Amino acid sequence: MKVCTDACLFGAWIAKNTEWDAAKRGLDIGGGTGLLSLMLAQENALSIDIVEINEQAATQANENIEKSPWKNQIHVIHSALQDFHSKDKYD
After folding, report:
1. I need a surface site. Which of 41, 46, 74, 86 has the fewest CB within 10 A?
2. CB-based contacts of 69: which residues, under 8 Å, 6+ apart?
C-alpha cells in the first residue's frame, strides 16, 4: 500500500508538536498501514489501538508494526468502528 508525503509530514508534525506526557492510551481510527501510529510510538510511550475496516490495510499495518521496535505498543483491530467495543478508555 502506498504512503503519501502528506501523511509523513502530518505524522511527524503531530508526534513532535503535541503534548503526550499525560496520555497513556491512544486510538487510531482508520489507521491504514499504521504509519501515523508508528510515528507517534517513536516519540511517545503511548499504547495505541488501531481500528481499521479494510482487511488489506489491517494486514499491512500488522506487518509494518511487527517489523518495528514498537510492536509491543501498537495493536491492530480489523473491524468497523461501529462494531468495535473496548473496555479501555483512551486519552
Report:
1. 86
2. none
Angstrom distance (rounded) from CA 59 to CA 57: 5
- The CB-side HSE value for 3 (13 A sphere, CA atoms) comes to 16
d(CA 33, CA 45): 20
How far is residue 85's CA from residue 1's CA, in Å, rounded to a whole number? 27
Phi, psi of 74 (to 5 degrees): -125, 135
The amino acid sitting at 19 is E
pLDDT, tens digit, 9 for 90 and up, residues 2-31: 666 777 787 777 777 777 677 889 999 999
Is 5 within 8 Å of 73 (Cβ atoms)?
Answer: no
Rounded CA gap, 48 and 16, in Å? 17
Report residue 89 as a C-alpha cell.
Answer: 478508555
- Could you tell me the pTM of the whole model? 0.85
